[in-house]
Design a protein that fits this description.
about 170 residues; alpha+beta; 3 domains; three-stranded antiparallel beta sheet; two-stranded antiparallel sheet; about 40% helix; about 15% strand; elongated
Length: about 170
């Protein structure tokens, strides 16, 4: 493959110096057919690579079906495909799964209150507690009629069905 500078030299040798294809090839150290091919073009265009078939192509339908039935990880899909004869690597599989997996939806906490009746203050425990070092569950402090009440966000989210209050982790 030649670059733009070499293309410009080929055009210069023919247009300004009046050299033949063989003379240009000898002067620039290129093959005659390469010089002829680039002289036939009116302007420089970088050649586009031809798309090649992937080892993953025969298994793409199977991957989609697996992800539709269950949220498998790429590693789990890789193991299943190995049993079915897949000979490719895990990296290309991970990239493909990342591209086709449906995006994760944001978590919403749905609450309805009259204007001025309620004030929500978020507390997302940035500390670890206990010997296990686990984070406490995310919580909201609900100020309702001048009383603070802690609420486990996961529990409230399961119990509410209407309204919308975006909860950003």
């Amino acid at each position: 493959m030649i670059d733009y500078e070499t293309f410009a030299r080929i055009r210069d040798c023919q247009d300004r110096q009046g050299l033949t294809i063989t003379q240009i090839a000898r002067a620039l150290g290129l093959h005659r057919q390469t010089v002829a091919k680039w002289l036939a073009r009116s302007r420089f265009e970088r050649p586009r690579p031809t798309p090649r078939a992937s080892l993953l192509d025969p298994f793409k339908g199977r991957i989609t079906r697996l992800l539709d039935t269950h949220p498998y990880s790429a590693q789990q899909i890789f193991q299943r495909l190995r049993e079915e004869g897949y000979g490719g690597g895990i990296t290309i599989l991970r990239d493909y799964v990342r591209r086709i997996r449906p995006p994760k939806l944001p978590v919403y906490l749905k609450l309805h209150f009259a204007p001025g009746e309620c004030d929500l203050t978020g507390r997302l425990g940035g500390f670890r507690h206990g010997r296990s070092g686990q984070h406490p569950p995310p919580a909201l402090l609900l100020r309702h009629r001048a009383r603070l009440q802690p609420i486990d966000v996961r529990r409230v989210h399961r119990l509410t069905d209407d309204g919308a209050f975006p909860f950003l982790p």
